[in-house]
Structure formats: C-alpha cells, structure tokens
Amino acid sequence: MSDAVLATRNLSKRFGALTATDDxxxxxxxxxxxxxxxxxxxxxSTLIAQISGALRPDSGRVELRGRDVTxxxxxxxxxGGLGRTFQISALAMEDTVLENALLGALGRSGRPWRFWRAxxxxxxxxxxxxxxxxxxxxxxxxxxxxxxxxxxxxxxxEVAVALTLAPRAFLMDEPMAGLGAEGSKTLxxxxxxLRTEAPILLVEHDMDAVFALADRISVLVYGRVIATGTVDxxxxxxxVRDAYLGDGA
Length: 249
Ligand code: ADP
Ligand code: MG
Description:
- By secondary structure, the protein is α/β, with parallel strands linked by helices.
- Helix content is 37%, strand content 24%.
- It folds into two domains: 1-81 and 167-249, P-loop containing nucleotide triphosphate hydrolases (Rossmann fold, 3-Layer(aba) Sandwich), CATH 3.40.50.300; 90-166, no CATH class.
- The chain has helices at residues 44-52, 74-79, 97-105, 116-121, 123-136, 151-163, 181-194, 207-213, 231-236, 238-245, and strands spanning 4-15, 18-24, 27-29, 33-37, 59-64, 67-68, 82-85, 169-173, 200-203, 216-221, 224-229.
- The longest helix is centred in the middle third of the chain and has 14 residues, at 123-136.
- Adenosine-5'-diphosphate binds at residues 15, 18, 20, 38, 40-46.
C-alpha cells in the first residue's frame, strides 16, 4: 500500500454536458503539501467538494487513510480526520474567536443554542479550542469578535477550527484569496510549518505561494490532471506551459 493519507481514484463528475472532473486520480502523502493548480473553471473546487463530501461523484472513489469514504457525509469525513478550510469563509462573524474554535471542536454538529452555556463550560472542549488557537497564534484574541480580525487572522482561525478535530489531512481551497502581499507571506510561512502536523491538499491561484510551498503540484485543465510532479518538473513541462502557465512563469 502507498503512504497516501488521502486519495482519489478515477473520480468523475458531470454537470449536464460538462465534465467538471474527468477521471482524476491524485494522492496526498504524509508530510507533503500537494498543490492543485489550473485555470478558472478547471474543476478545482468541484474536486475539493467531492473529497470533502459536499458533492457526490458520478463515478470513482475517495479514500481517507486507506478507507473508502465515498459514501460518507462531510461530518463523518471530518471525524475520520479530514480537516478543511473553505473558499468562502464559514466563520460566525458575530461570535468570538474562541466560540468559533469551540464550534469547530464540536464538529459543527449543530447543537441547539440551549446547550451553548454547557459547552462553553466544558473543560475538555475549551482546552482543545484554546490549544488550537495557541497553535495558530490567536490565543491572545480568544475573546475578540471574529468580524474585527484581519483577513489573514481569519484564515488562521479557519485553520484553528480545523485543528480542533486533530485532522490527519487538510483540504484548502484558495486560502490566499483576498489577502494582500504581506498577508500571503505570513500565511505561507504558517502553512509551511503545518505540513508536518497533517499534509495539505492545496488549491491555490497565488503562484508565489504554490512554488514556495508545494512538494508536488498537479495541474488540472478541463477537469483532467495533465501533469503531476515536483515544482521543477512542472515549471519545465512544455505541456503545462502550453496549457496553463505560459512562458512568463
Ligand atoms: P475552479 O474551482 O477550478 O475555478 P469549478 O470547480 O468551480 O472550477 O468549476 C468547474 C466547472 O464546473 C466550471 O465550468 C463551472 O461553471 C462548472 N460548475 C461548477 N459547479 C457547478 C454546478 N453546481 N452546476 C453546474 N456547473 C457547475
Ligand atoms: Mg474554485
């Protein structure tokens, strides 16, 4: 067996006549950042949605730590060790940083609010949430209203929310989106140190970040993986240049 923590096998998804994901087989290995790049509309988010469980593939499967999870819900996958951050932020802006982390620690199981007081008093949950905030450098902001955080801090909070469930693999869809140059740099440094905790399948447009972070890159064009390789291999690939990167890259 390979050392893949997460894998897709011949995954395909059609929307009417459009094949958004076309026979995609990729894997994420222990300790690595595997970037998925490609032009707009290439099917990156559709691929991520099938891995997270938000979207059902037409055919093919998703394996998490060697187990077929294709039929599992997003919650079951999260409990199984799949941590994700979203292209659109899923944080509760009016809640505090700690409350968001606590919701994460609960696995977003949608507990009724009358349980909320009990939850905030739960020692074990609180410790887990605080440890995750420490890890991303937001412990000092535990009582801060989330809306007040910078974009970069919100991304770090999203990672903290994912960390509360002790993920074995991360899925990230464009975490650099909306960050300025400075914010991207900070987040790049942060993600660099995160890969040893859990490998990251990273969809990202910011090529500086991708080239700085990726151990391997897969290039998606019209739903198909046209190449997988190291940064150097992808940069040198004529097929990738022709299809996507252009000669400036
Ligand atoms: P990317 O993230 O690479 O920009 P997407 O995965 O969002 O690409 O989209 C891939 C293709 O699938 C696009 O042509 C998009 O318009 C189409 N698509 C995505 N989601 C849906 C949907 N729910 N219904 C119909 N078409 C969709
Ligand atoms: Mg997308």
